[in-house]
Amino acid sequence: MNLEVQIAKIIEANGAFLYDTEIVTEFDETIFRVLVTKVGGVKLDLCASISHELSPFLDVHPPMSQAYRLEISSPGIERKLSKPSHFENAVGEKIKIKLGEGQKLKGTLKSADKQNITIETKAGEETYAYSELNTCKTYFEWN
User: CATH number, domain at 102?
Assistant: First the structure.
């Protein structure tokens, strides 16, 4: 059984989509964070509904052997991009990427497929394979 597939099914039954999962430690507490998206946005009631359905499932199929706290949330307007599907869904948005040797770029994500992304920067369009990218995230310019 693929845990992520089962989690995605529970989320989809609530009208949303699994964006990603992550395990983080904050203030000596381990958190299993489930990030969800939905057309029109993610509201608190949706997170609560998913949590009520997902929690008993994870009691039977825990994501880790140690104690943890389950957290359901939206990835936010400025979100990490790590999977090809993240990039494909962010086409047209502004992104920041870090490449090797500390090189940083900002621009608009023009296209993404299973192997590459193309970003339009001030210097023009540039294409990178996912293997060339260190960290990537969308960003919002506040006016």
Answer: 2.30.30.100
27, 52, 73 — which closes off a domain?
A: 73
Q: What is the 3-state secondary structure (H, E, C) of 30-51?
A: EEEEEEEECCCCCCHHHHHHHH
First-to-final CA distance of the chain: 47
Q: For residue range 77-123, what is the model confidence (pLDDT) as tens digits?
A: 889 999 998 999 899 999 999 997 889 999 999 999 999 999 999 99
For residue 84, the model assigns a pLDDT of 92
Domain that includes residue 103, residue range: 84-138
Asked whether residue 143 is domain-assigned, the answer is no
Rounded to 5, what percent of the chain is helix, strand, coil? Answer: 25, 40, 30
What's the order of all strands across the beta sheet hosting 133-138? Answer: 124-129, 116-121, 104-112, 94-99, 133-138
Cα dihedral 119→104→142→48 (10° resolution): 80
Torsion sign over Cα 59, 36, 26, 65: positive
